[in-house]
């Protein structure tokens, strides 16, 4: 009788030794460049969970370098006792570092005393999600700073020239708050060391077998350039039209419900628009709103005036499909640049996935609660999740 021997499994290669302090592989560890700095400013960094997996994330440098800094991971911090205590500290009133029209230039109007500086760590999409998920943050006064230099973050692409890494922004802002810009620039020593060591390691190992093969000159991106480079100009919108059976004498489509959001700032827009004629018999139930709401909508002229005040000439209108956008333009709304995110996701996934909710699931995107009414509100919530997932996918393949 013969016996069969199970095939011998090849041992898995051991992973690269990793520094327990900075989290980087030991060959590119930057801990020897870290200097512990004292500040009167308390720094509270709230990090989106996805950003934790980015090995070249710079929030770790801030936590390692600043004695008075803490790093918290999550999305909803409403039950985090440490965060809430920091936000409520009367000795150091909390302020949010976040650009936008509501923000004060910290160089022009610095606070009189010590503050708690809250920093959101993540992409534009992720930072905006953190802001929307935490009403306590929305209530804080806001600071911003115009960078005086281009980013030195050469191992990770930035969405635009004015964008900086978290540690670079902190060095600039703390230089103002502490009244000692030169000392705060020392925060960038480990950052520069991380960048230089990563570039040197890649250059040394290019052409060697394994995962670090010579890189292509550019990585293909399915995400339109305007969305990647101008996130502050992106407006997501969902529109619904008066539904009549498709016959030769059917009236032309008219907008009756419109909802939009500017993810970079969290600004939202919603309007019910009064149709020029009677509503189709299935319009209200199909849109999941009350017929009375639609009949009491504002005239098309009033809607367009409000929309033009919200949507700038340089904005990019992103929708699911093109029908409602076509109707908007035909009725007098302007959009110099439009992007069909349904077409984009088909390119990313490689196939059609059906309804917008199914597409979000295929991308691994978690849909948040709707902030607008009916079917348009549900579609907009799914569109926000898809846009965030596309931005995250576009960053995949960056060097570690």
Structure characterization notes:
The chain is 33% helix and 14% strand. The protein is elongated, with a radius of gyration of 25 Å. The chain has helices at residues 59-65, 81-87, 124-133, 135-138, 166-177, 181-184, 188-205, 225-229, 283-287, 291-295, 300-310, 323-330, 341-349, 356-362, 374-394, and strands at residues 42-47, 69-73, 94-97, 104-105, 116-121, 142-144, 234-241, 255-262, 267-272, 316-319, 337-340. The longest helix is centred in the C-terminal third of the chain and has 21 residues, at 374-394. It is an alpha/beta fold and 400 residues long. α1 links the parallel β1 and β2. α14 (356-362) runs parallel beside α15.
Topology:
Blueprint: E1 42-47, H1 59-65, E2 69-73, H2 81-87, E3 94-97, E4 104-105, E5 116-121, H3 124-133, H4 135-138, E6 142-144, H5 166-177, H6 181-184, H7 188-205, H8 225-229, E7 234-241, E8 255-262, E9 267-272, H9 283-287, H10 291-295, H11 300-310, E10 316-319, H12 323-330, E11 337-340, H13 341-349, H14 356-362, H15 374-394
Parallel strand pairs: 1-2, 1-5, 3-5, 3-6, 4-6, 7-10, 10-11
Antiparallel strand pairs: 7-8, 8-9
Q: Could you name the ranges where pLDDT drops below 50 across 5 or more consecutive residues? A: 1-14, 155-162, 208-220
Number of H/I helices: 15
Q: What's the main sheet like?
A: 6 strands, parallel
The spatial strand order of the largest sheet comes to 2-1-5-3-6-4
Oligomeric state of the chains present here: single chain
Number of domains: 2
Overall structural class, as computed from helix and strand content, comes to: alpha/beta
- Rough outline: elongated
Distance between the termini: 54 Å
State the order of secondary-structure elements, H for helix, E for strand. EHEHEEEHHEHHHHEEEHHHEHEHHH
Query: How many individual β-strands?
Result: 11
Could you tell me the mean pLDDT? 82
